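$ run holo --ligand "guanosine-5'-diphosphate" --emit tokens
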Amino acid sequence: MEHPENNEQYKGLKVNKGVTNMPAISPYLKKRLQRRQYTAPEFVEGILNGNITILSQAVTLVESSKQEHQQLAQEIIEKCLPHAGKAIRIGITGVPGAGKSTSIDAFGMYLIEKGSKLAVLAIDPSSERSKGSILGDKTRMEELSREKNAFIRPSPSAGSLGGVARKTRETIVLCEAAGFDTVFVETVGVGQSETAVHSMVDFFLLIQLAGTGDELQGIKRGIMEMADGIIINKADGDNMDKARLAASQFRSALHLFPPADSGWTPKVLTYSGYYKTGIREIWEMIDEYTAHTRQNGYFEHKRNEQSKYWMYESINETLRNTFYNNPAVVAMLKTTEQQVLDNEISSFVAAKRMMDCFLGA
Ligand code: GDP
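-- output --
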């Protein structure tokens, strides 16, 4: 609406039009505050120099779903790949309360005191629902989070398990290029995420507890089968005997599994993450495993198999996303789903129709 004050008779007075939506921050200031985006070679140089700020920013690009971020991220990863692969990658799982944070803090400090550089990553698909990552949170690893040689990154929180896992795997590449010689990938031992973690690590550690009734409860058989080492936490105070008993029960349970392709017999050890006892033995076990599998060729073989696995996983994810984001598919999907629910067509006919629609047949 025109302001009457702007009429010529009101000399010396001018009222400007109002703004409907006030910007939260002055656009001029915003422009100044915006960081200049590094180019791919700048990112790579920063990462190779071990610059943690640049590494973090590159990981943010890997996690972003924006097309232009993804493109830049892929360029960075490709250039970092020849510098990656030198770290030992360790998967750590255990049900909530098993002591993962306490243990990672303790293991991490042990390694850092030995001169290692450690990256702690996580896969937590449930974080999408809770809109905030539980795993990898810095506050959970108090001592480690103060160390300059430790890089702690929470689980990427958006997307499917496959998507989250791919991002973590790509982050491993960046961390290794930045000179981290040990990478932990943490996950909650309750679901499918273990398979994803297992497919990106060299050694898989399962944290268990004693004295909770049936010792094998709460952990799926498949997860136990994946473990290269089972470590019983909280072997301290009154719990010592129970922990030893649990260890012998796990040892007998492991005998029932077929021998692993690695030629390695999984070990069962007791320790206390809280009192930091038994930790050296865990690292001796991992060193022994590495020496053993490097010697019989399994270490390389497993990494090659993992690379192959991730190629197919990546193809599958891309296909799935392309399908579900296709406008023709989006337009038809719900109606077709309803037809299946109303028993008008079978699931298979419905699937075929959707595929035909996607392929433009
Ligand atoms: P997470 O959920 O697997 O990450 O487990 P936390 O590390 O948060 O540990 C769960 C609880 O167990 C906390 O109250 C810890 O203080 C306690 N805890 C962890 N490790 C030990 C241990 O070695 N001994 C004892 N007694 N308690 C522990």
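-- notes --
Residues 298-325 form the longest helix (28 residues).
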